[in-house]
Design goal:
heterodimer, A: 114 residues, mainly beta, seven-stranded mixed beta sheet, 0% helix, B: 111 residues, six-stranded mixed beta sheet
Amino acid sequence: KAGVTQTPRYLIKTRGQQVTLSCSPISGHRSVSWYQQTPGQGLQFLFEYFSETQRNKGNFPGRFSGRQFSNSRSEMNVSTLELGDSALYLCASSLDQGYNSPLHFGNGTRLTVT
Amino acid sequence: AQTVTQSQPEMSVQEAETVTLSCTYDTSESDYYLFWYKQPPSRQMILVIRQEAYKQQNATENRFSVNFQKAAKSFSLKISDSQLGDAAMYFCAYTGNQFYFGTGTSLTVIP
């Protein structure tokens, strides 16, 4: 079974631009969550989607948004990029809605904002 | 608020030796799950081990085991017979209404 796929692997953007990251979960997984990883901060939760509905949202500004499609694929959008948005963005899928299901992670998208 | 603390930013261990990574968490919940994830240089986070809070028995997966002290809110990971492939960042995670991760411990394995 294919794992979680994130595209692209690397992105370089300029301050003020917007960016869209894509995530395809493991087949059969309906929950997709997104995390921002920066050195010293660990993983910060962005949001989680289950069956096309945002179930939970972390403490990030409204410039960060996401959505999930009927095939469970998810996209994350960041508008008006700032230098501080440079990070590794990880997507994870899980089998069901409960938080006892382990997360399965993709390889991440490395975003650099210049 | 739920928080997860990993107080050891870096650790090192000789190959074939044993190392313990520390993790503490803060919660008012009684039912939750705890996880250890490993992130090698390839960046992909891999599940190492999982512990249900209602189970008193410590989880074990081959060379990996945990010491779960619920009253102390402590969840340490022991790696026995360390191998070069164990070198990675290790993240402790707690799940309440979402996953909360610690800041990670970078483990170096010395040949």
